[in-house]
Design a protein that fits this description.
Blueprint (H helix, E strand, L loop, with lengths): L1 H15 L7 H17 L1 E2 L13 E6 L7 H6 L11 E6 L10 E4 L6 H11 L5 E4 L4 H4 L3 E6 L2 E7 H7 L2 E2 L1 H5 L2 E3 L6
Helix pairs in contact: 1-2
């Protein structure tokens, strides 16, 4: 167990470590890698299709795609699976496409309150790991929100929204995140 914690901390520190004025491409390579790391430390409900090996693990991107071809390049290789499943990248253009995602990345181009509320109305209470990159998104209900602080990528977790999603994070993941709201159930 101690070895697992050490490996997680080293991996997260390596990915999040400071690169003075790193490029946009470096930023999105790191964010893409975090999808796999986050998923390794989250347990989806037993009745979720994430446990069905015949179906791919779906990473959706909604809003303008900031990754370019990074996601396809990272997850097209056989060894880069998530939850021992082939990864399928989908670019979401309709709200009804969201429910097929295991991870939904909400691009910073989704900056209107109404757009975010529509997305959260679809994902709320469902085992879909929403990941944003806009200041204040965790406070509005996005499960994980990535931000840059002192030239490092950090993340915050909305504890209440995470609880409602029925996704269970490991204590190791929680120990390296900024928590928004209370971890305790009301």
């Amino acid at each position: 167990m101690r070895k697992c914690i050490t490996v997680l901390v080293l991996l997260v520190v390596t990915l999040l470590s400071a690169l003075p004025l790193f490029s946009i491409e470096d930023e999105y390579y790191r964010k893409a890698a975090l999808f796999k790391i986050f998923s390794q430390y989250i347990q989806w409900p037993k009745n979720s299709d994430v446990n069905d090996r015949s179906k791919p693990f779906v990473v959706g991107v909604i809003g303008k795609n900031p990754f370019g071809s990074i996601l396809e390049a990272a997850y097209s290789q056989e060894e880069n699976k998530i939850k021992d499943k082939k990864v399928e990248i989908r670019y979401i253009s309709k709200m009804e496409e969201i429910e097929s995602c295991h991870i939904l990345f909400i691009s910073k181009s989704i900056d209107k309150e109404q757009e975010l509320e529509e997305i959260l109305a679809v994902t709320r209470g469902k085992p879909i790991l929403t990941i944003g990159e806009t200041k204040g998104f965790a406070g509005k209900g996005v499960l994980f929100n990535l931000f840059i602080s002192r030239d490092e990528i950090r993340f915050e977790i909305n504890a209440q929204a995470l609880r409602e999603s029925r996704l269970i994070p490991s204590s190791q993941l929680l120990s390296v995140a900024k928590i928004v709201g209370s971890l305790e159930a009301p």
